[in-house]
Every structure is written in structure tokens, then in C-alpha cells.
Amino acid sequence: MVVALSVMLLLPFCKAGLAESESIQHYKLLSSVEYSGEGQFKNQVETLLNVRKQFLSDNRVQYFISSEDFDLLGGAISEQQSSSRELSFIVDEKTGRISEGGKDLGFLEKVNNYCISSLKKVTRDNIGKTWKQSFSVPFLEHLFSGDLNLTLTALKMNTEVFGEVIAVRALSEPFVIKSSGTKKKAGNVQSKISAVYLFDTEIEEIYLSISVFEATTDINGSKEKLRYEVGTYMTDSTGSSVNLSGLGKDFEKLVSKIGLNNKSLKVEKETSLPQWAQYEGLTGAQVAHICAATACEGAPNPVASLYVPTVRTLAMQSRGTLPPIGMFGTGTVSGALASNVVGMGGMKIAAGPLFMGVSPMTAGLAAGGGATAIAAGAGGGGGGDDSRSPSGL
What we know:
Strand content: 25-35%
Number of strands: 15
Oligomer: single chain
Shape: globular
Number of helices: 7
Helix content: 10-25%
Mean pLDDT: 83
Radius of gyration: 21 Å
Distance between the termini: 61 Å
């Protein structure tokens, strides 16, 4: 009885200790921005992200995210700073909603919470199937209208170290972003998003994520193209990747269809990004990244830990506040992944033709592809009932 009483008295203190426990994860971020019009723009960044999770009461988790090389809240680290400041926000694990992100994450917080409220499909219930998910963003209808329509495929795969894992791919239908050119002439920007996430079987841990956003327009009188490519993978504290050996051909096929470049853009006449790319194009890309990540996870768990620093980095790259950083320099995201991620060496994950020519994504846009004017975001959309076995990946 004395022992039992002691356990009962200590239990509340144990729970309190667990509620305040922490864990730290590390990810390598590879981010590339490319633009071609009358000139070219390219910015590539490679950095180690530190993701610290503090477990709070009431099933809430507070995230603290920082880069080893720059300040996610404001650009390159100044000489007066010893390290970058941390992004911070809280995720309710029951609802998936973000809160307390402050003014720096206000927009992303709003988009995330619309996405979560729109989910109609649970990914873990659709393993081995293909299904549809749609999103809309009513508070961004001045930039978008309609829905962002995604086709998702989820497959079980095996790795030598982690055992069974879940790979999920999202491919969007072409959508339109409203914009204006240099002479304030209204026009359309044809866009597309694609992404792959590799999760554990509980779809709570993220081992790898890859996403590609592409936009084309002739709003300024000539053909212009904007492209964002991002890859993240789990590492140890030194930046060495976890071992993903064993994924095989099915994973290679899944990734190859998202349209990664096999060659980097050559800058012959350097320019800055035009207004439509810096503002409407960037906003569309950020929202589309959040939608695709949320749809791939399909559950109220924190993919935000990766897409939040990703879209913050893209914004700094696009607006010229972040110099090129890292070792993959004039290479490509696909090349860096194949070289650095254990188990991906030798995989043919890049698309065929070069981005500035005709890729699988631009080919669909050029042909029309049934493009719809859409809001690349979330909030009020519904999931289609298109569950079926994947065919040809």
C-alpha cells in the first residue's frame, strides 16, 4: 500500500516532466530559385536546420527552428549576431492548427489552419491507393479563384535501417495566379506544384521531402519562367544524412515524376526577379507548398516543421536578402540529393529535358492541360472519392 501510494503521488510529477520534455531533429535544406526572361536569376542555398520540439500540456508541441547559416526571421546573420534567431510556433496535435507564431508567421499560420480544416482524406487509410484532394483560399481570392486540385499516391516501401516507410506524392493540376506586369497590365501566371514526402509508418516522422513549383507567363510581352525546387532530408547533428538504403526503383519512379531539373540554369545576363515573381508568384508558391505538404501528410501532425523554414527561405532568396550559401552551388537539387543522401546514389530522380526547355510540367502547361483558375491554398475544399490502386506510379 505504501508503494502504491508513493506511485500515485509521484505520477502527476512524472506527467509534468514528460509534458516539458524536448527532442531535437536535424535536416539539411537544399533550396533553389531560378528565373528566366530577358535575363536570368539564380539563388541556391544549402543549410542545416535544427528543429527543437518542446512537448507542452494538452497535446500541444512548441517548435523552435533555426538555420546554421542565416536568420530565418530576417536574412543573413550579421556580424553582431553569434547565431540565428529561432522561428517559434505551437501545434495542437489534436487539430493540427498552428498558433502563437507571431507576426512573422501570421500569413503561413492562417494558410495552414485553412488547409487542416479542408482535409477530407486520411493518408494512413489510403496506403496503396491514389486519391484526390482539393483546396481553396477565400481570403486570397484577389489573387486566386477556384480550387487547387491535387492527385495523391501513397505507397509502402522498405528501408534497411528504418524498416517499412510510407512515401506520398502530390501532383497538382495546372492553376492560374492573377498578376500584373511592369505596365500594370493584368495577366495570368500558369503554375503547378508537385511534392514527395517520405514518412515513418505512423506518418509522424519525416525522413525526406522534395517539392517543385513552376510558373510561366508572357505578362510582360515575352516568355518568363519561375521555378522553385526544395529538398530536405533528415541528418545527424553534423549534417550527414540518415541511411535510406533499400528504397529501390518504386521510389525512383515516384520522385522522377515531380519534375526535378537534371541541369542547373546558366546565368548569361543576370537580373533580379520581376514584380510578379517577387510577389504574386512567391505567394502562390508558398501557399501551394503548404497545401501539398498538408495533403501528403493527411493528418494533424507537424509537416509545418519543414515547410515553414522552406517558404521563409524561398522568400528571402526571391527578394535578394539572402546570398547563395552552401556547396551545391551551380549544381542541382536532384544532384545534391543523389550525392548526399545515403541510399539515393545512382537513382534517376530528375526529369528528362532541362527546365528552360520543355519539362513534364511545362509541357502540360503549354498544351493547356485542362488548366483551371485556382486558389493555390486551403479552406473549404473537399476531397474527391477517387481511391484506387496506383498505376505506373
